[in-house]
Specification:
- The chain is an all-alpha fold and 109 residues long.
- The chain has a single domain, classed as Helicase, Ruva Protein, domain 3 (Orthogonal Bundle).
- Helices cover 65% and strands 0% of the residues.
- It is built from six helices and no strands.
Amino acid sequence: MNTRELALTRLSRANRIRSERAALKRKLHDGHVNLARVLVSPPPWVSSMPVVALLGAAPWAGKVKAERILREACIPLEAQVGDLSYRARVGVLAIARERYPRMWARWNA
């Protein structure tokens, strides 16, 4: 495989991952996907996604609330989903549930 073919293959893979992430964010926002399920056992293509982007896609969150949750959990704002341990992911969800109980209950029933 020459460098051009390799570059096209990588570009195709990156585009597919971006499309899947965009679809996931839309489904999260519309309430068709549960944030807790995605964060606790993420699909492989979500592992390199920033946690703040995943949390921010939730209809009750947004970027500011997502950043606040990560700061409270002592997680760097640039952390990716794959960087977090299971315990850290559960901790983020617990903080979100504790800080925003009404919004959490509405969108994660």
